[in-house]
C-alpha cells in the first residue's frame, strides 16, 4: 500500500479529483434491483468519465437506501469495471466483527487487486434498535475507547501481525498475508488502504494522529466541515501510509439541464429527508409528489436548511459551487453524491458534471 493508492489525480479542468458516493437510492415505483442496476451503470460511467473512485455507503432499515451490504455490492461492481477504485464510504465498524471485515475486504482485494478502499465509520448507519439487532447486544458504544481498539484489531488482521502471546496470534484473515507464508505462497503487493470517515472532530483527530486519509461527511454536517478538516491537519503525524494530510469531503450535488429541473429533484430529496428525520422513512418520492406536498412551517424550515447545503442547478452553476466549496475547505478531493428519485436523473447529473469540467470520455 502506497500513498499513490490513496491520492487521486485531477482530470480535465477540475482542480482536485472528483469521485462518487453511491447510496443506491430506491425511488417510488422502482425496486432494489433497479437501484443496483443504476449503481452498475454509474460505476461504468464514472470509470469512463475519469471519476477517481466509487464508494458505497452502509445504511440499514431504510426502504429508500439499498446499500446495507457494501462488500456484496462492491464485488458486483468490481466484476463490471476495470480501473476505477471501489470502496466503502463507509463500513460502520461497530456493527461488525473486525475479522469479518478483514475477510470481506481481503476477498475484494483479491477480486480487484489495487482498486479497493476500506472506509470506516463509527456511527451505526441506522437507528438504535436496528444497531442493537445488528450487534446482538443492547449495549451500544461508539466512544473514544471502543472504536480505536476495534480499528487496531482490524488493522492487525489486515496485516496479519498480532504479537506473540496475543489470543488472536494464530487467527488469520484469509485472503491475506498469511498465504504468503505457506510453501509456495506469494503475497499480493496490495492491501486495502484504511480511511476514517466522520461528521465531527473525533475521527478527524484520530485519522490525523494515525496518519490516515480522512473523509468528512459535508453533505450532512456542513457546519462542521472546516473545523474538522483543520483539526485533522493540525493533528496529522506522518506515517508509513501518508507523509502529508489527505482529506476528501462528501458533497451533495445535482446537475440538470436547467436550474428549475434540478430544484424539482432536490425538493423530492428534501421531502424524503423530512420523512426520514420524523421517523417515517420510505422510498424516494417523485418530484410531482414533492411539489404537491404541503410542507408545515417546521418542515419548510428543515427543507430550507437541508437544501442550503446541496449544490444544484445547471452544469456551470454546479461547477461553480463545487469550486467555491473546494476553495473554502481546501479539500484534496470532492466525492459527489447525486441523489434523486430516478436512476436516469442521477446518471445524467454525473454526466453533466463531467462535461462541465471537461473530464475525459465525453
Show the helix and strand layout.
Blueprint: E1 18-22, H1 32-49, E2 53-56, H2 70-79, E3 85-92, H3 98-111, E4 116-121, H4 128-135, H5 146-159, E5 194-198, H6 201-210, E6 214-216, H7 225-235, E7 247-255, H8 259-277, H9 287-292, H10 297-307, E8 311-313, H11 315-329, E9 333-337, H12 343-356
Parallel strand pairs: 1-2, 1-9, 2-3, 3-4, 4-5, 5-6, 6-7, 7-8, 7-9
Helix pairs in contact: 1-12, 2-3, 3-5, 6-7, 8-10, 11-12
Shape: globular
Helix amount: 40-55%
Number of strands: 9
The largest pleated sheet is described as: 8 strands, parallel, barrel
Arithmetic mean pLDDT: 92
Q: Proportion of β residues?
A: 5-15%
End-to-end gap: 32 Å
Major β-sheet strand ordering: 1-2-3-4-5-6-7-9
* Poorly predicted regions: none
Radius of gyration: 20 Å
Number of helices: 12
Secondary-structure content class: alpha/beta
Order of helices and strands: EHEHEHEHHEHEHEHHHEHEH
Task: Explain the overall architecture.
The structure is a single chain. The protein is α/β, with parallel strands linked by helices. It has helices at 32-49, 70-79, 98-111, 128-135, 146-159, 201-210, 225-235, 259-277, 287-292, 297-307, 315-329, 343-356; strands spanning 18-22, 53-56, 85-92, 116-121, 194-198, 214-216, 247-255, 311-313, 333-337. An eight-stranded parallel beta barrel has the order 1-2-3-4-5-6-7-9, surrounded by eight helices. Helix 2 (70-79) packs parallel to helix 3 and helix 8 (259-277) packs across helix 10 (297-307). The longest helix has 19 residues, at 259-277. The protein is globular and about 65 Å long. The mean pLDDT is 92.
Amino acid at each position: 500500500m502506497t500513498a499513490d493508492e490513496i491520492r487521486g489525480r485531477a482530470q480535465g479542468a477540475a482542480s482536485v479529483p472528483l469521485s462518487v458516493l453511491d447510496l443506491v437510492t430506491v425511488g417510488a415505483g422502482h425496486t432494489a434491483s433497479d437501484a443496483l442496476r443504476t449503481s452498475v451503470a454509474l460505476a461504468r460511467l464514472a470509470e469512463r468519465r475519469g471519476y477517481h473512485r466509487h464508494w458505497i455507503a452502509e445504511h440499514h432499515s431504510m426502504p429508500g437506501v439499498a446499500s446495507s451490504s457494501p462488500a456484496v455490492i462492491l464485488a458486483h461492481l468490481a466484476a463490471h469495471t476495470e480501473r476505477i477504485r471501489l470502496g466503502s464510504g463507509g463500513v460502520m465498524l461497530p456493527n461488525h466483527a473486525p475479522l469479518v471485515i478483514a475477510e470481506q475486504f481481503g476477498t475484494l482485494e483479491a477480486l480487484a487487486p489495487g482498486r479497493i478502499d476500506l472506509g470506516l465509520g463509527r456511527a451505526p448507519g441506522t437507528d438504535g434498535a436496528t444497531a442493537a439487532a445488528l450487534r446482538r447486544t443492547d449495549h451500544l458504544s461508539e466512544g473514544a475507547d471502543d472504536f480505536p481498539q476495534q480499528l487496531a484489531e482490524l488493522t492487525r488482521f489486515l496485516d496479519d501481525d498480532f504479537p506473540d502471546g496475543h489470543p488472536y496470534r494464530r487467527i488469520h484473515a484469509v485472503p491475506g498475508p498469511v498465504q504468503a507464508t505457506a510453501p509456495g505462497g506469494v503475497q499480493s503487493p496490495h492491501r486495502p488502504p484504511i480511511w476514517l470517515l466522520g461528521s465531527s472532530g473525533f475521527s478527524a483527530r484520530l485519522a490525523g494522529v494515525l496518519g490516515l486519509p480522512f473523509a468528512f461527511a459535508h453533505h450532512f454536517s456542513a457546519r462542521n466541515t472546516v473545523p474538522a478538516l483543520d483539526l485533522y491537519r493540525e493533528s496529522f503525524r506522518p506515517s508509513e501510509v501518508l507523509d502529508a494530510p489527505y482529506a476528501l469531503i462528501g458533497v451533495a450535488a445535482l446537475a440538470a439541464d436547467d436550474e428549475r429541473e434540478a430544484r424539482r429533484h432536490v425538493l423530492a430529496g428534501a421531502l424524503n429527508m423530512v420523512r426520514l428525520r420524523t421517523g417515517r422513512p420510505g422510498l424516494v418520492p417523485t418530484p410531482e409528489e414533492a411539489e404537491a406536498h404541503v410542507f408545515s412551517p417546521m418542515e419548510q424550515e428543515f427543507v430550507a436548511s437541508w437544501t442550503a447545503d446541496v449544490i444544484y442547478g445547471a452544469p456551470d452553476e454546479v461547477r461553480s459551487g463545487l469550486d467555491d466549496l473546494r476553495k473554502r475547505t481546501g479539500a484534496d478531493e470532492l466525492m459527489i453524491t447525486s441523489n434523486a428519485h430516478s436512476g436516469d436523473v442521477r446518471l445524467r447529473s454525473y454526466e453533466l458534471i463531467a462535461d462541465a469540467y471537461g473530464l475525459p470520455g465525453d
